[in-house]
Amino acid sequence: MPDTMYVTFEESWDAKSRTGGRALSHEEARVRDAAGLPYAVVYRMPGRELPLGARMVAWQAGVLDSWAYDEHGRRTAEAELQMRTDEGQLLVRRLLVRRFPDGRTGEFDVHCPRTVVELSAGGTARISHQLEGMRGDSLEAELTVADEHLWTRRPCFDDWPALPVADTLPDWVAAELVAAEQAPAGSGWRREPSRLLGSTDFDRVFRPGTRIGGVRVLDAVPCGSLRVPSGVLAVDCPQSGDEEPRITVAVPPGTYPVKAASVEVVDKGYGSYEELVAIRLQVSDAPVAAWEMALGPGDDTLRLRDGAAFGFGTDAAMGAFGDAGTWQDLRELLERAHRPGSPEADRIASTEAGAHLDGGGLGADMAVFCTGGDGVYPVWVGRSASGEVVCVDVETGLDLDHDA
Q: What mean pLDDT is predicted for residues 236-254?
């Protein structure tokens, strides 16, 4: 830390916006510390508007979170610590360090190299090192760790500099990574494929006659077209309470067809029936070279476990494609159009997947689709060999066994 660093105290801290709550005096912060009440310690330097770092302290809850910021306000490091109350020590439960190649790279850019270290009080560490960011492979291992690497002393109120905001990896982690790059097979380190890239070929769901997990794919059915004038596609539940759509995907501004895929299911008890399994926005006719999970704000694949995925959530068993620039206007129009006797009711047309909303003068539309229930639904982006968006897919119903 610079010699000129000083600290200020605030009632709370928002790590993303780098803003705190009410400013606290030194004495107010001391009282809150003694009582175990939450408060933030913010590290600053004269002449720099953005903080060097911040810590959110909550001794009653036994936790401490900290962040380091670069000159562009990006979080270069994040740490989660948990207190061992019997000895006044803190377990460095999770440490994430990011490396930005230049000043333009976004905080959650998929190309940004990162390393995460997750520690347990039992003496084990899980390390994931993504040298090429989320789109690249991850070098991973579970290791036994010495006690001195697990714990750090809980600082007294007046010695916060004794617990600096770290924006570099601990020496023992750096040494392990150097050894891992040179280690022979069987050393405990392994390379894992990117969790951002999918191994499933979602095109199979739109190939009539294909059999997937014992069911037969039927002809895809058109569900209208969608105007996306802003060049950003939104994917979310239209009844979500959030102001912004959960998932967005950059596409060239234009009008794109939407289609639904169904399968024929044969059941001994119910006979044969059709079930909607996927909805697609088709951006181009180029072949898909790779499938990539679309991420929402703050989504980090380092937090994903095997078989898990990010997506949009719904409590209404529905999702929608729409233009991100007019997302709120489209949602409000959809709500008005559903009211009994609404003069805008004719803007809604039924489709195989759900409904199509004509946005009229908004210059944008919304395609609403039914899902198999409440929950989280991943959004998969098909990209060409050159990285351009070919299509955007959501599996909506039956949990297909793509490996069958």
A: 93
